[in-house]
């Protein structure tokens, strides 16, 4: 995974959310306690944090900065901010060599940060779409790539429902909805 998959996820988020900027973004984002607006600000925060990690390559922790989105920023401004943060991550990924390693609960390569960026974008777009009562499912090709990189023990099946199950958003073929989960971005061995 790399910048091209991240940019595809960002384009999907824009395509899905931009037509609904006049909706009530104060409602909860699907199963989350955050509002749709705050969930989108969280996406920007995480994408910017990942970009910082890939650019600085710290070995033992996260850089001490956070994205703060002004409380008066409307959904359109928050969407633009999140997409800009995603583009910063895409640029950092494009500049990083394959041997680069940065901290995310262990040494993580650029493909891990790309996969996390795609996952954050797709999953939270799904949460927001659910909150706004939109019928949207993450693209299977991107979901499959996320599953391969971050959830190597995922069960077989249609990638979008499997990713939603892996991240505690839905039940799956007789498997109850997960209440706890983690992804594996750091490289082992």
UniProtKB/TrEMBL annotation:
<feature type="domain" description="Mycothiol-dependent maleylpyruvate isomerase metal-binding">
    <location>
        <begin position="6"/>
        <end position="129"/>
    </location>
</feature>
<dbReference type="InterPro" id="IPR034660">
    <property type="entry name" value="DinB/YfiT-like"/>
</dbReference>
<dbReference type="Pfam" id="PF11716">
    <property type="entry name" value="MDMPI_N"/>
</dbReference>
<dbReference type="GO" id="GO:0046872">
    <property type="term" value="F:metal ion binding"/>
</dbReference>
<dbReference type="InterPro" id="IPR024344">
    <property type="entry name" value="MDMPI_metal-binding"/>
</dbReference>
<protein>
    <recommendedName>
        <fullName>Mycothiol-dependent maleylpyruvate isomerase metal-binding domain-containing protein</fullName>
    </recommendedName>
</protein>
